[in-house]
Write a structure and sequence with these properties.
By secondary structure, this protein is of the alpha+beta class. The chain has four helices and eight strands; from the N terminus they run ββαβββαββαβα. The chain has one domain (3-151): ph1033 like fold, CATH 3.10.590.10. A hairpin with a 2-residue loop joins strand 3 and strand 4.
């Protein structure tokens, strides 16, 4: 089982049950955090982050695969011919009191990320989540977040 951190800001894929990222970012550059969707496997755990909080947790139902823009994104103005990557996810969206504020877990997230020393770390030099889309996180951090969610 693998764990992922998805910065889902304005896209709100969690409402429609998937992760989706275009092959190229807004600058037209292939982006590793977008391609990471292809590495998602059934049973992987995804933590959805938006507005400084973990707002949902999900389990992947499919492997990541190549596809065009999802219908919901087209309705919101994304061109339908955009190639991208998708994985179908079943999400549990948290009520306000269940959401986890990043500031409350920043120290622990930083410690687990520094111990793991991944090539593409979730955190920037100020120890805040980077702006990319999907980051692999360590099993230690994944389990910590699951226990934290269970506490609430």
């Amino acid at each position: 089982m693998a764990f992922w951190w998805a910065n889902q800001g304005q896209s709100h894929e969690w409402k429609n049950g998937y992760l989706w990222a275009s092959e190229k970012d807004k600058k037209g550059v292939i982006n590793q955090t977008h391609e990471n969707v292809l590495s998602v496997q059934p049973g992987n755990i995804i933590f959805s982050y938006d507005g400084g909080e973990i707002i949902a947790v999900g389990v992947s139902l499919t492997r990541g695969f190549k596809t065009k823009t999802p219908e919901e994104r087209v309705e919101n103005g994304v061109p339908p011919e955009i190639n991208g990557y998708r994985a179908n996810i079943i999400y549990r969206v948290f009520e306000n009191e269940k959401k986890i504020k990043f500031q409350d877990i920043k120290e622990q997230v930083s410690r687990y990320e520094q111990e793991d020393k991944r090539e593409h770390s979730l955190l920037d030099k100020n120890l805040n989540p980077k702006e990319g889309y999907l980051y692999s996180i360590s099993p230690a951090l994944g389990w910590y977040l699951l226990f934290k969610i269970n506490e609430k």
